[in-house]
């Protein structure tokens, strides 16, 4: 057991260390030209070791060093009041709330659409191609307009952002659920037929339970997409609150360290959300008698 | 001859009856009664809808019924639209009731078409295009009818006809935007990102230690909101297309890496043992067995990436561009409340996105025709 | 349709007929032209019989079973089950069907799987529990109620699926190669148990197989079928006693019947493929 776990973790750790090392090297090479420029103007002579240290401590570096990002992240996450405008927890919370709202609406919508598609041939043949096509559309491009237009009718705050998340998250759920609701084999459908089961009975007792693994697999994709939607939805609001707003504010003032810290926060939120869906999925599937992996 | 009434027809008849009580279709305009000629239009509409329902109920041939339903529903819709031409916001409840009846007729048409089982390949393909096309057309029709019938403010939601007019009138601007965003940022980034991910996957495959290290990281990264690096790339590479291409590279790299590695792992021990019995080397096994087996996975990544690339390039432009590009146009025209231009850009982006995706899908069909998902004519 | 087709077998039969087919035919349209899965099948099956259907693949034995179960609609001739059409019989839950695979629902425990048809038929809770216990005991699965299908061997899974088919007490049991995927030792064991079950419950069983020893060991009557078009070529009455230990398969009587079945199969089979 520990043997296999070690086999799994050691390579990942080595790769992570390699990435951090490359990052530090990148920090030096990307910040060094600006530092030399700075030193020439200030007429400071530095040894190469001194120069290396200087590139790691710039206030607005081209590429911040990992420890700078970590320190900024730590400071803005744990050392600030949650209500503070600079608290990353505050911004993450704003993003999280619209992500979750959009995800819930999108998931419900996706399930309903899938149920319709599975039960009506005409819906399957007319709607399904558009659902697929709708995802080839760079819908995120709509985000600024949705926000601005809804603001024009006095609809601001959570809902407009959540609608973008909804759009991005309904699709994986709809497609996954169509697959899931169709996953029962013919033999199982025949069995229900021999019992003279009604359409509703076949749905509740066969199609729906069979689709559960598909539902959770697609919900993992959907919640990640939902987060992306929420972040992009925050861009045109004039950088008020949220991870996306923090990124935009950082780019206005070239505060790279802040931007990287916001990215880290966004990534952590993503990991937490996907893990949460995964854990819930495992529990439900275990309850439903799935063979433990 | 048969005589059965579909439920859509029944509801449509009911709606027509209701509409009859609510006539006229549109409010009288300020300058008095509508011209006499226009008064006959409701009769034409009613006649067409009733004819469609009648033919559907009385005849056996699905083909005849589908064609007549199609013609009646859409001609009636056309006449309906002549009623609100040039007079937005004048529609009365009867207008929507009759429109709903037309829509039900079109639905009935789709239902009849879905039952049609053409023997030939051509017929099947044509049908699989016509049915969604009718559905799409109705989304536009209802959109147009509601925006114009209710006189919804232009800023909120322009009717499709206005968007189309804007698209035509500002074609030169749109062509320049497409050139900047698609031909420069997206294509360059897509090719570099996919190629990079593919090469990285091959290297990772050669060294199992690296594969075991990179795969969890790659899986993690594909769940992250990678679009967030856009402002950083803009700072590094400047406002022009290079920064957008960099965003696209990073967004497309990981899906390609993860999918290719997964694809290279699908061959069974038996298949690989067969290659061993031929004393085939690593590269021979890779080219003759494992890469073809991985093709469906690689194409899956190419398809995912085609959408991601477009999203990445357009959103990255929200963070700063020279004064050209689809994302730039969208964000500035939203600011000026020129929503018709925004919709025109989005329509163009949608068409290009679909073509891009469709192109990859066509190549996929040609290359992986042997895969189970493509047999039986299923896509 | 005329369901009062007189049939020679019917007059001689002492027990009432459960299934009677006359001139039954079924043609599938396919891309390569129509395929005649069944043609001119005349057959009467009486109450309490154990009838096996044997023949090479494509001979229509499974199709015949599916027609009885109203899973396929015949294109010619008539068929009645207990005097009803297959559809009416299905709606009255006149038969239990056992498929080639156990087809247990992976998210239900064994007892919940057996409960499935009872839930659908709206059986009351107390009676449901009693029936589950009884049928699981009948297939020797008592004690495995709370297990999930993947925790059971293939043979046990198939027994659970038989329990599921028995749970609602239909008089007719349709079995479509139920033991085809199991190894020989398990199969022998299940055959023996099936015979005991048949003796205890006095059900009518239609059993599709492609194993000659299995057919001869189990049946009171063996229907030999052949393909292109699918038709009945021979009906063999078994002379074996109803009480059959496994070693009956070494007796000359058994081997004689098996030889007759083999001859019937060979005669009907054209070796053009």
TrEMBL record, chain A:
Going by the UniProt record, its keywords in alphabetical order are:
Cell membrane, Membrane, Transmembrane, Transmembrane helix, Transport
Q: How does it sit in the membrane?
A: Multi-pass membrane protein
TM segment ranges: 12-30, 88-118, 130-152, 259-281
Primary localisation category = membrane
Q: Which InterPro entries match?
A: MetI-like, MetI-like_sf
Q: Where is the ABC transmembrane type-1 domain?
A: 88-281
Q: Where in the cell does this protein reside?
A: Cell membrane
The record's similarity note reads:
Belongs to the binding-protein-dependent transport system permease family.
Output the PANTHER family linked to this UniProt entry. ABC TRANSPORTER PERMEASE PROTEIN HI_0355-RELATED, ALKANE SULFONATE ABC TRANSPORTER-RELATED, MEMBRANE SUBUNIT
Q: What is this protein called?
A: ABC transporter permease
Per the UniProt record, the lineage of the source organism begins with:
Bacteria, Pseudomonadati, Pseudomonadota, Alphaproteobacteria, Hyphomicrobiales
UniProtKB/TrEMBL annotation, chain B:
Going by the UniProt record, its keywords in alphabetical order are: Cell membrane, Membrane, Transmembrane, Transmembrane helix, Transport
Q: How does it sit in the membrane?
A: Multi-pass membrane protein
Q: Where are the transmembrane segments?
A: 42-59, 66-87, 93-113, 125-143, 187-205, 217-239, 245-266, 308-330, 342-363
The record's Pfam families line, in alphabetical order, gives: BPD_transp_1
| Localization terms from the record | Cell membrane
Q: Which coarse location class describes where this protein primarily resides?
A: membrane
Which residue numbers delimit the ABC transmembrane type-1 domain?
Answer: 198-367
For this entry, the protein name equals ABC transporter permease
- What organism does the record attribute this protein to? Tianweitania aestuarii
From TrEMBL, chain C:
SUPFAM superfamilies reported for this sequence: P-loop containing nucleoside triphosphate hydrolases
Q: Could you tell me which InterPro entries the record lists for this protein?
A: AAA+_ATPase (IPR003593), ABC_transporter-like_ATP-bd (IPR003439), ABC_transporter-like_CS (IPR017871), ABC_transporter_ATP-bind (IPR050166), P-loop_NTPase (IPR027417)
UniProt cross-references to Gene3D superfamilies, sorted A to Z: P-loop containing nucleotide triphosphate hydrolases
Report which residue ranges the record marks as coiled coil: none
Which part of the chain is the ABC transporter domain?
A: 19-252
Pfam families documented for this protein: ABC_tran
Q: Which domain of life is it from?
A: Bacteria
Arranged from A to Z, the UniProt key words for this protein are: ATP-binding, Nucleotide-binding, Transport
A single GO molecular function, which one?
ATP binding
Similarity field: Belongs to the ABC transporter superfamily.
Protein name according to UniProt: ABC transporter ATP-binding protein
Q: Which organism is it from?
A: Tianweitania aestuarii
